[in-house]
Specification:
Strand order of the largest sheet: 1-2-3-4
Bound molecules: zinc ion
Mean pLDDT: 81
Number of strands: 6
Strand content: 5-15%
Structural class: alpha+beta
Number of domains: 1
Length: about 150
Amino acid sequence: MQRFAVPERFAAEIERLMRHPVFSLKQPEEATDFARKNGGLLVGWNWSFIVLRPSGEVVDWDPPSPPETVTSYSRYLQVLGAASQIYPSLFGFIPERPADASSCHFCRGTGAAVSTSRQDLRCPMCGGLRWLPAKAQQVGQDGLPGSSSR
Ligand SMILES: [Zn+2]
């Protein structure tokens, strides 16, 4: 099973951004509380509350369901892509498109969102990356970001 590691300097950058979060009136206090309790950076608060931890772990909470730790690589990339829209410095942590990746079918490889609400400027499927990882990389408990011993 393929593992993927969080790029070097990722944790330091997330921690730096946690000290300088983007505040918006659109962020419910519940979401910022959730991020604080989970020790991560709030990167999503529209459909569900999404927190990116310095380890690369992603916690997704869509109340009233319990919070879930994201284990899919494609979802991790999607979150990273969307997060880089809020925090441009994260853009540098998006991996190069692998040779076996496929173009995103949802946005037809444009990276643009189909819905045009201002909060949703990027494709919700690929997070604006324009590509999706190969099927083999998309699932697997081993593929949890930050699970590498590196
Ligand atoms: Zn897309």
